Amino acid sequence: MEAGSKLRGPSRKAKYSLATDSVPVARAKDGKNPYQGRIVNLKPPAYKRSVAPLFGTVILGMLWKRTTPAGGWTGLLAGTLSSVGMYVWVKLDPGAVRYVALSMEAQDQAQNMFRALWCCLICVIVTVVVSYMTKPKPESELKDLVYGLTPIPKDDHVSMFHSPVFWGVIVAVAFVILQIIFW
Q1: H helix or E strand, kind and range, residue 24
Q2: How many other CB atoms are there within 10 angstroms of residue 28's CB atom?
Q3: What DSSP state is assigned to residue 14?
Q4: DSSP assignment of 136-161, as one string?
Q5: Are 100 and 183 contained in the same domain?
C-alpha cells in the first residue's frame, strides 16, 4: 500500500469480527483516535463477552458442591455463545433490541448490561442442568474448595487491628469522607 493512500470504511472506529468480537479488522485509520489499532481496544469486547458467564460459573462452583467440571464448562460455553449470538442478532436486526434489553430505546451500555444478565442466567441454568446429568465429584476432592465443605475458622480473641469489622468500618468512613470531598 502506498504511503499517501487512505483506508476507507463505514465507520471511524475499528471494526471487529462478528465471531469473537475481539479480532480487529483494519477498516478505518483516520488518525483521530490515538488508541485505534492498539491492544487496549481488544479488552472491552472480550471482557463483555466472557466475564458474565465466567462470573456465574465461578460463583456456582464455589457455593454449590454438586457443580461438575462438565457442567461448568458447558455453562461457560453456552453463556459465551449466547452473548455472541445476542450481539449478532441485534446487529443484524436492530428491532431485536426490544427482546434483549427489554426496550427499543436502550443505549449501548444498557444493551451490554442486559446481555450480560441474560448470559449469566443462561450460564447458571445450563451449569445446573448439566451438573444434575453428570456424576458429581466426591466430597473429599472438594474439601477446602467449596463453601459448604470448608471449615470456617473462629476469631474468638483477636486484637482490634486484626478484626475485619474494624477495617471494614475504616474503609467505609474513608469512602464517605472522599465522597464528600470530591462530590
Answers
A1: strand 24-25
A2: 19
A3: P
A4: PPPHHHHTTTSGGGSPPPP-SS--GG
A5: no
Residues 6+ apart with CB under 8 A from 110: 101, 103
CA pair distance 50, 38, nearest whole angstrom: 20
Residue 50, domain member (yes or no): yes
State how far the Cα of 22 lies from the Cα of 45, in Å rounded to an integer: 6
Residue tagged 472491552 (cell numbers)? 44
pLDDT tens digits for range 118-151: 999 999 999 999 999 999 999 888 888 888 888 8
Which amino acid, 155? Answer: D
In 3-state terms, what secondary structure has residue 37?
A: coil
Confidence grade of residue 2 (pLDDT, cut at 50, 70, 90): very low
Q: How far apart are CA 81 and CA 18, in angstroms?
A: 12
Q: Are residues 49 and 83 in the same domain?
A: yes
Per-residue cell: 35: 488508541
Query: Are 28 and 93 contacting, i.e. CB atoms less than 8 angstroms apart?
Result: no
The answer to whether 124 and 60 have CB atoms below 8 angstroms apart is yes
Q: Are residues 51 and 129 in the same domain?
A: yes
**Mean pLDDT for all residues in the chain:** 79
Whether residue 169 is contained in a domain is answered as: yes
55 half-sphere exposure, CB direction, 13 A CA radius: 13
Residue 160 belongs to a domain: yes
The domain total for the chain is 2
